[in-house]
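Q: What would this chain look like folded?
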Amino acid sequence: MNDYTLYYWPLPFRGQFVRAVLAHAGATWDEPSMDEVIALKALPPQEQPVPFMGPPVLVDHAEGVTLAQMPAILSYLAGKTGLMPEGPAQVALTLKVVDDANDVLDDITRFGGRSMWTTGEWETFTEERLPRWMQIFEALGARNGLTEEGGTLLGTPAPGLADIVTAVLWFTMAEKLPGIDAMLEAEAPRVAALSRRMMATPALKTLKDDTDTRFGQAWCGGMIEASIREMLG
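A: My prediction, written as C-alpha cells:
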C-alpha cells in the first residue's frame, strides 16, 4: 500500500503543493480517479472521512488520519517530514507563506471562478495586485538573505515548506501562463531564481515532468482558466 492517498483533480493547482511535499519527502501516494473524487465530494458531510467542501483531501494510511484544506495538509506533512522550521516565529512565518500562496490562487482565479475576468479588471490586477504579491514574496526572502545565487525564503539552513510552496506557486504559474514569467523576473528575481533551484531538485524535477505528461499546459482548469488565457492572449 502507498503511504498516502490524495484526492484531487487532474490539475497542477492546489493539489500540486501537496504532491510536491510528498515527492520531496520521498513518500508514495495514489490518486483516485476524478469520478471517485466527485463521489467523495458529493457525500453528505457526516459520511465523509473528514467533512470538506472541495479537494485536496489527503489520507495518511499509517496514522489513520484524513485531512482537507491545503494549508492544514501542508502543515501536517511538514511536521511529519521535518520541513517545518523550529521556533514559533518561524513556524508562523511558514504558515503565512502558505496562506499567502492560497490567497494568490484565490485572487487570480477570482475565488474559484465566481466571475470571469474583464479586460479592464485584468489590466488593473496585473498592473497592481499581482506584482504586489510577487514583491511580498521577494521582500520576505530579501530580508532573510535570499539572493539570486542562493539562500532560502526564511533564511533556514536547508529548504523547508516555505521554499517548496513558493516554488510550486510561482514556477508553475510562470510556466503554465504565458507572460507571467517575465513579470516574475522583473518584480521578484530572487523568488524566480529560488523557484528554479527548487524545481530542479531531483524529486521536484521528476514531479514536474510527470505533471507535464499528465496535465499538459492545464493549470486551474474550467471556465476561469479559459478566462485567464483569454486575457493573456
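The first helix runs from residue 14 to 24.
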